[in-house]
Amino acid sequence: xxxVVDALRADGSFQVRLLATAxxxxxxxxxxxxxxxxxxxxxxxxxxxxxxxxVTAQCxxxxxxxxxxxxxALVLAEGDTTTVLAAALAAYYNRIPFxxxxxxxxxxxxxxxxxxxxxxxxAGALTDLHFAPxxxxxxxxxxxxxxxxxxxxxxxxxxxAVQRIAARDATTQxxxxxxxxxxxxxxxxxxxxxxxxxxxxxxxxxxxxxxxxADGDPGVGIVFPVHxxxxxxxxxxxxxxxHARILLGEPLNYLQFIQVMKRVRLILSDSGGVQEEAPxxxxxxxxxxEKTERPEGIATGVARLVGTDRARIVQEARQLLGSAExxxxxxAATNPYGDGQSGPRIAAIIRAYLGGTR
Length: 358
Description:
By secondary structure, the chain is an alpha/beta fold. Helices cover 49% and strands 13% of the residues. The chain has 16 helices and 12 strands. The chain is globular. The two termini are 22 Å apart.
């Protein structure tokens, strides 16, 4: 949302208030600090071992309280988190228009990803302005009966953010261990994994594949910032800890993460955002999921869906690490997710919707 917030503020027609629910406290604070986006309201909803129903209830009641205080002309949220669903619902209860950035992504499987698929579908039913990143996302919304005049294909502002950060992060300092691994590896690899549907055996299979990739190629060094969720940290540390060329560490701040993405040869991830960020930096990404709501990347060839099968992951990674031709085919493809101007487009549409004259 950073490029959208910047564009709204630069427009001069708006007063922008930022609300953080803080679903991921430590990771959120770091991003907000790096981007200089202090929240005006911070709900701090998370407690240890909290259930989804508890998070949803706290988000809805907390956001409702803020909306009653601020009485905004429009509420905006991006993505498919529980926060987005709660924001849409609270806005509806207060009869405030809701704008959904990154609207229309679908896998058509309500449990994959869980709970994100239903978060975005339900939020879509409550949305007044749908900011779809691609034409395919627009088609998904039209099939669900959404009025075409409410859908705007804008690209995804995450592309704006990546391009802006990539242009300014040359002096970003990385942890010494990461710097040493990147400098000492002929074929460095970045890995992220955190999806709920991968907990247990699927994540263990991914870990076995990573060890096999590293063991089979002495030029490979793997950077794996480990998500704080114990369902991730436990098996990853147990299966990969102690390997000389697999570096497990804490999550990186956004500037650091983008710099690492720029410097590796290959990315393996189950993240939705990384599927858009990697092509923005001309890096191939292997998607560690069985289904993706971002099929455009698969169709254009900037990403490959490999799931969590050990043999498939190893095969695809070795091909890209070992074949210059296969690698170049992926990095030469066009990024389907935007051109870096999504923030200004979204701000202009909001101005028109609210009756702005500038």
